[in-house]
Amino acid sequence: MKSIINQRKIARRAALSNIASIGGLLALLASVVFPLFKPQYMSFAYGLMIAGLGVAMTGIYFANRWVKKPRPEASLDVALKSLSNAHRLYHYPSLPSDHVLLTPNSLVVLETVNLASHFTYKNGHWREMIGVGRALRYIVEEHLGDPFKSARGSAQFLEDQLSQVIEGTARLPVKAVVVFTHPAAQVEAENPPLPVCKPDKLKKYLQIQGPRLEQAVYDQVTEFLDRKM
Q1: How far does CA 37 lie from the centroid of its chain?
Q2: Extended strands (E) in the chain
Q3: How far apart are CA 130 and CA 226, in angstroms?
Q4: Is 0.90 topped by the overall pTM?
Q5: Residue 64 dihedral angles phi and psi, to the nearest 5°
Q6: Digits of tens for pLDDT over the chain (229 positions)?
Q7: Which of 64, 77, 86, 98 pairs as cysteine with 104 (C-beta 3.0–4.6 A)?
Q8: 56 and 24 in contact (C-beta within 8 Å)?
Q9: Cβ(131)–Cβ(141) below 8 Å
Q10: Cα–Cα distance for residue pair 97/99, rounded to 1 Å
Q11: Which helix (H) or strand (E) holds 24?
Q12: Beta bridge mates, 179
């Protein structure tokens, strides 16, 4: 399996996250120190404190997304490393989905959830059992949302885009799998509309039946995805 990762995007987002985190904390510090020298500007210090807190929390939120380990791409690479070189795994392309796998007979959107919690899906609804640690981090971490909706939207976007790229009448099947990549995540799904799994079970859901893609189609899709990196 060949892994293609947009390192520039990760480095840029990580740098911005760190700048926001440090900048916000410095603003908070300044809001405490400033009134000691200019007490008449106390209202300005309050504004600086609120702004600094907001910027710092935003920076921490995105640092959890782009800096904190374990990283989703690392978990996916380890889980799929034994696949053949005909499989190309794209991390963080300029697409709605952060992870897309091109296989010899299809394209698969890998909708990742990188949160340490206990998730259940039943009767069409997701629920999260929030422990103390997760509750304390809740404001500065991503939320579950509806990964099925996100996965479907990403798959539909790719189908629409590729219909304009692939020459002739050939159609490329675009599938979607929801993957809970954090090692501490627990997930139980009852009759999910899309496959749901942890990374160690992912290969089972990639055994998609169907004819092998024509080489011309495979090459066109590869070129399209490479341009998105």
Answers
A1: 45
A2: 2-5, 88-91, 99-102, 107-113, 118-122, 125-129, 174-180, 186-189, 196-197
A3: 39
A4: no
A5: -65, -30
A6: 999 999 999 999 999 989 988 988 888 888 888 777 877 778 888 888 888 888 888 888 888 888 888 899 999 999 999 999 999 999 999 999 999 999 998 899 999 999 888 999 999 999 988 776 677 677 777 888 899 999 999 999 999 899 888 876 567 888 999 999 999 999 999 999 999 999 999 998 887 667 888 888 899 999 999 999 9
A7: 86
A8: yes
A9: no
A10: 6
A11: helix 7-37
A12: 112, 197
Q: Quote the CA–CA distance of 69 and 86 in Å, as a whole number.
A: 28
Sign for the CA dihedral angle at 5, 9, 15, 17 comes to negative
Q: Which two tokens stand for residue 164?
A: 């304009």
Q: Which two tokens stand for residue 196?
A: 């749901």
Tokens at 142, concatenated = 């991503």
Pairwise CA distance, residues 110 & 122, whole Å: 21
Tokens of residue 101, six digits: 């796998």
Close Cβ partners of 132 (under 8 Å, ≥ 6 residues apart): none
- CA–CA separation, 72 and 210 (whole Å): 28
Domain boundaries, the chain: 2-66, 72-227
Q: Nearest-CA neighbor of 10 among 113, 131, 92, 89?
A: 92
> What letter represents residue 44's amino acid?
F
Query: Are 177 and 205 spatial neighbours (Cβ–Cβ below 8 Å)?
Result: yes
